Amino acid sequence: MKQDMIVILDLGSQINTVIARMIRDLGVYSEIHPHDISLDKLSQLPNVKGIIINGGKNNLIGGVPIDTNHAIYDAGYPILAVNHQLAKGENKREGWPETEAETREVLKYFLFDTCRAETNWNMKNFIDDQIDLIKKQVGDKKVLLALSGGVDSSVVAALLIKAIGKQLVCVHVNHGLMRKDESESVIEVFKNQMDANLVYVDASERFLNKLENIADPEEKRKIIGAEFIRVFEEEARKLEGIDFLAQGTIYPDIVESGTKTAAIVKSHHNVGGLPEDLKFELVEPLFHLFKDEVRACGLELGLPEEMVYRQPFPGPGLGVRCLGAITKDRLEAVRESDAILREEFKIAGLNKKVWQYFTIVPDFKSVGIKNDARSFEYPVIIRAINTIDAMTASIEQIEWPVLLKITDRILNEVPNVNRVCYDLSPKPCATIEWE
């Protein structure tokens, strides 16, 4: 690794990711590691220039305060302890300053005056490092990539093509939970325009049968994740020398899926949903990148801007936007209403202003009036949010004429729907997706 590194040890603070982002913004690479990391494992991390021990409200396990391995205190690393009793009492703070600017000044002093770190965290160095790591990991073997067409898998594809070329086999699985015309778009861009080695698998009926009567969102995610792996295993058996599975796992996926001292927000299909008997070794080059860093990486790799800034889409697809047990009528309502929303946002110029926008159809109905008669049909919920790193999100204020036009179109063009709502909940305390 060409970058200097600052290690943040997680003792339950809710702002570890904020601190990590600030450090990276200052030009120094940072990673969050468990509080009980061993000295041996810590010493194996490349170019560690300093350690931040960050306490918080969750720094108890079974009512007992947790601490780092005390051997780390005497290992010679500069240490900044915040909200934590540092053994030697040096570089200790009772809390972070109240303003972002003040916190940045504290970090700048620690990084550059205390740790003597260099500002060498940039995408060119990151890409060079990842290409070397991919070549070392993969050798002359082949890699399967789950190519959804979203920014994460697209950037992984570009990295792998740059590192191993034709050893990459891209597999696009239509699980029946795609947005309208999504699979067709993936085939057009990656196979016809980028000349990727692309395998298309239509497994829509297979996935929907597996998900029949499954209402719990965690169970749905795990079923989708496990079934994805099964499909890839089947495709791998048709090929020779497939030993690796590449994924577009990014840092928020890891953080939200939980660590020893952080509560699980939700299991991501590519983190918590993987089967224990996985037949492949994973290749995850974006593992430590936040979402905006993934986009910067894509631009550095030369991907077109429209692909890099493509609307985010979760791995489980519309399966987590058709709430509860998935039914074909509600799934179609999600797909059609989402297409209307995306079309109208593009017309209004909101597609480049709003980070993520989509519709949700819950598993309950409401009374309404359609065609001068009583109706008992589903509501459609619109969600539009802005974020930098997907860890927090604010609500976009959409002008009334735009919302009214979208509402009118959904009510008139989407079957089985008689109500449209707008979700005003930020993250936190809501998450971006409903499930």
The overall strand count is 17
Structural class of the secondary structure composition?
alpha/beta
The CATH homologous superfamily of the largest domain is called HUPs
Distance between the termini: 37 Å
| Spatial arrangement of strands, main beta sheet | 2-1-3-6-7
**Can you tell me the CATH architecture of the largest domain?**
3-Layer(aba) Sandwich
The biggest beta sheet reads:
5 strands, parallel
Outline type = globular
CATH class of the largest domain: Alpha Beta
Uncertain stretches: 258-273
Give the overall pLDDT as a whole number: 87
Domains, number: 3
Write structural notes for this entry:
Helices cover 36% and strands 20% of the residues. It has 435 residues and is α/β, with parallel strands linked by helices. It has 3 domains: 5-114, Class I glutamine amidotransferase (GATase) domain (Rossmann fold, 3-Layer(aba) Sandwich); 123-308, HUPs (Rossmann fold, 3-Layer(aba) Sandwich), CATH 3.40.50; 327-422, 2-Layer Sandwich (GMP Synthetase, Chain A, domain 3). The strands form 4 sheets. The chain has a 5-stranded parallel sheet with strand order 2-1-3-6-7, covered by helices on one side. Strand 15 and strand 16 (394-395) form a beta hairpin. Mean pLDDT is 87; it is low at 258-273.
